[in-house]
Each structure stands twice: as structure tokens, then as C-alpha cells.
Write a structure and sequence with these properties.
14 helices; single chain; alpha+beta; six-stranded antiparallel beta sheet; binds zinc ion
Length: 430
């Protein structure tokens, strides 16, 4: 198995109270289709198939592949696949998902959302969404397994200073004015819970946005082949994080989403399924974490780097309040596998937003890199940071020597050997 972080979802991430909410575009794309009338789904599917056959849509590789092999995809094919995925039911395609809705004066919305699977086996899902007066999410909840998945395991977050947590008031559904002490990790940082906006929550949010105009959706699928996303899932069992990446690459983020992210109101983060680090890289990563925490960085989850390249990876993210961030890169894709210690060697990607870099009077950086990022170790380069949707000046370095000697005397030499094999290829932008 490849070494690195195994992603589950990627999406727009907001923090309210002690919850981290991830809104993946894959949930919204599917809910968008779920909320179409059955006739419209058939009509749109036929339209997409025709576009792919006529070569007008180059952006739907999975649909194109199925057409090449089988000549096409009929509505009945889709229905059959949906049934296979959802306990022999095609409710996703032929049933209106919103069964009941109600709203309180305080901006709390209650929904009953139909399940896509066997409704006889389990109840419909109750969804509760709280919005503030400006239409921002305060919290949301659902009864389904996706929402209730335990994503917090080993996944603490210390975006808040531990000193400040004492005076912290938990609002929304959790608050009654009482001070609540969040759980802490071993370093004394508060534990955050990560929640995913599932299909049901996404359907409810679409309903609030489209029927009531009280919420602004983070995604716009007008020019995005959402049927490709549906086919990736129901025909190919591609994981949601891949569908999220596809939708983000196709331009699903609204201008508003990009603006709010680049202004620091929210981020684009990855919910992990699992991490697969060998013991040496794990020890280096733990060492880096301790070192970074001493420098006032805190663990901030996971994010995608180098999107749209063969080196796309999910890194472990540490952030600092001045806007700087450090991403730890550790992935088989970089080819930094060392046979001596049987380990994938981690690298440090340090990022400074361009505006901070400029404010500090540093020399302008024009270098961009291509190919294997770790081949450019030691070179400052310009990069688009997916997590913050901003331009950053980055540099990739090896873990500091003191950390390596403390762990394993051979490591320093190991990095030297690996680095000789990967030749740097910096590209200067004209
Ligand atoms: Zn749900």
C-alpha cells in the first residue's frame, strides 16, 4: 500500500464552536441530482452522453471510457447502478428527497430527508441546520453514518490558543451559556470534532438556498459535468475525495467561496480515512510536530497540495496566526523511499502568503516548479496553496539534522543519498 494520507473527502471547511465542518462538493453534486425531477435527470443524462459522443465535452473521462466500451449509458443503466449502491432502491433518481421542513424564528431549520437506500429498514433522516442572520452556518447535524463517522480520532486541532479556551463560549445548539471544557489532546490542545456535510445535509442546504434564498451555496455546478461525478461513484466506485478533486478542478467553487477562503474565513481541507506512515517517518512527523508547536504552530488537519499534477498529495498541515503554514509531505509518489530504513522520507513544505512576504520586504520570488516537487528542495518558489486559495512563497526542506540524529544516526546520510537521485528542475516564469 502506498505510504501517506488516505483521503476520504475534501471540501470547504468552516470552524464554528469546537466543530470543524467539511462541506464536500461530492455531497452537493449528488444532492443536486437528487433534487431534480426524474424526467430532468433523464434529459440531462442524455444531453451529457450526446456531448461526450460528439466530442464536445473532454472533461468527462469516465463517461467517455464507458461509452468507448459499451456504446453509451442509458437512464436504465444508471438506475440499475443506483439500485446496486442503495439497497435496491432508486430513490435518488425518482423521489423528492425533502419530505418535510420547518424553521424556527432563531434561524434553526428542521428537515426530514428521504434516504436513498431501503427506507423500510431505517427511518428517514432528520437534519437540523442553524444559520446566523447573515446566512452563515452555525452548526448542522444528521442521523446518518456519514455525518456520525468518527473523524476526530488522532485528529486534534489547536487553531485556538489553549490559554483562550478557558473563556470560550460554545454557541449554537451546544450552548446554554455554560462554559464547556473541550476535550484535550496530550499537548493540552483542545480536541475538535470533524463533521461531514452528507447527502442529507447538502439536500437541506440546497433547499434553503433555492426555495428560501437564506443560504448561499458554496458550489456552482452550472459548467460542471455533475453526471461524471455520479458515474464516477455509481459505476466505478471511486472514492469521494477523488470526486471532490474532480469537481474542484472543474471549477465547482463559487467566486464567493474562493474569496472567503483567500480572506481566511474558511479553508479547503481533507478529511482523512487513515494515515499510512511507517514507523520511521511517523517518528519524524511526530518530532516535527513537537518542534512546530514550540514555534507556535498548531496542527490544522490535512490539505491537498500540487492539485492537477501527478504529485498531488495530502499533507499534514500546521498553521500559525501570522498566516504562515507548514505542510509535511510524505507520499510514495515523491519516490523518496529509503531501502536502508524501509521508510518513506518526509519533507517540509513551508509557506508564506505572498502579501506577508512582500510586507516583510523580502525579495520578489518568480520561480515556479514543475515535475517532482521534492527535486526542488532548498529553492524558494511561487505556488498556489489549495488550502487557503492564495499565492504563497514556498520552500521544501529536509527535517532539521538535530531531529534526525535524535532518531536515527543513519537518517542524515539517507536523505543525502535520496536527494542525489532526484535532480532539481526549477522553471523560471517569463
Ligand atoms: Zn446524513
Amino acid at each position: 500500500m502506498d505510504k501517506g494520507v488516505n483521503e476520504l473527502y475534501e471540501g470547504v471547511t468552516i470552524i464554528t464552536g469546537r466543530q470543524k465542518y467539511i462541506l464536500p462538493p461530492s455531497s452537493f453534486a449528488e444532492a443536486h441530482i437528487g433534487m431534480m425531477k426524474p424526467g430532468e435527470i433523464k434529459h440531462q443524462l442524455e444531453g451529457v452522453i450526446e456531448e461526450v459522443i460528439n466530442g464536445r465535452s473532454a472533461e468527462a473521462p469516465v463517461i467517455a471510457e464507458i461509452i468507448r466500451k459499451k456504446g453509451g449509458i442509458s437512464y436504465e443503466d444508471l438506475e440499475e447502478r443506483v439500485r446496486k449502491h442503495h439497497e435496491e432502491r432508486a430513490s435518488l433518481l425518482n423521489m423528492e428527497p425533502i419530505k418535510d421542513e420547518d424553521v424556527s424564528g432563531g434561524g434553526v431549520w428542521y428537515f426530514v430527508v428521504k434516504r436513498r437506500g431501503d427506507a423500510r429498514g431505517e427511518r428517514d433522516r432528520k437534519v437540523v441546520i442553524s444559520l446566523d442572520q447573515r446566512g452563515n452556518i452555525v452548526d448542522f447535524s444528521c442521523e446518518c453514518p456519514t455525518y456520525n463517522k468518527n473523524l476526530a480520532k488522532g485528529n486534534f486541532d489547536s487553531l485556538m490558543n489553549p490559554k483562550e479556551i478557558y473563556g470560550y463560549y460554545l454557541g449554537g445548539n451546544f450552548g446554554n451559556g455554560a462554559l464547556v471544557q473541550p476535550q484535550r489532546d496530550v499537548s493540552g490542545f483542545p480536541l475538535f470534532t470533524t463533521r461531514i456535510a452528507c447527502y442529507h445535509v447538502a439536500s437541506a442546504l440546497i433547499q434553503i438556498a433555492q426555495s428560501h434564498g437564506k443560504y448561499s451555496l458554496p458550489f456552482d455546478f452550472t459548467n460542471v459535468a455533475i453526471f461524471e461525478a455520479l458515474v464516477m461513484d455509481k459505476f466505478k466506485d471511486r472514492k469521494e475525495a477523488d470526486i471532490d478533486d474532480y469537481l474542484i478542478r472543474q471549477g465547482a467553487l463559487t467566486e464567493e467561496t474562493v474569496r472567503r477562503t483567500s480572506e481566511g474565513e474558511q479553508t479547503l481541507e481533507v478529511a482523512k480515512h487513515s494515515t499510512n506512515f511507517d514507523k520511521y517517518s511517523h517518528r519524524i512527523i511526530q518530532g516535527l510536530r513537537r518542534m512546530l508547536e514550540q514555534r507556535e504552530y498548531s496542527f490544522s488537519g490535512f490539505a491537498t497540495d500540487f492539485r492537477g499534477t501527478p504529485y498531488k498529495t495530502t499533507s499534514v498541515v500546521f498553521t500559525k496566526r501570522d498566516g504562515r503554514s507548514v505542510h509535511i509531505l510524505c507520499d510514495s509518489k515523491f519516490g523518496a523511499y529509503d531501502t536502508l530504513v524501509d521508510s518513506e522520507l518526509p519533507f517540509i513544505l513551508s509557506n508564506v502568503p505572498v502579501f506577508v512576504w512582500t510586507e516583510e520586504g523580502k525579495q520578489q520570488v518568480m520561480t515556479e516548479i514543475g515535475g517532482n516537487p521534492i527535486a526542488n528542495t532548498g529553492t524558494h518558489f511561487l505556488r498556489f496553496d489549495e488550502r487557503t486559495q492564495t499565492e504563497v512563497v514556498s520552500v521544501i526542506t529536509r527535517p532539521p539534522r538535530e531531529l534526525l540524529t535524535g532518531l536515527e544516526a543513519a537518517y542524515g546520510r539517507v536523505y543525502e543519498t535520496i536527494m542525489k537521485e532526484i535532480t532539481p528542475k526549477p522553471v523560471i516564469r517569463q
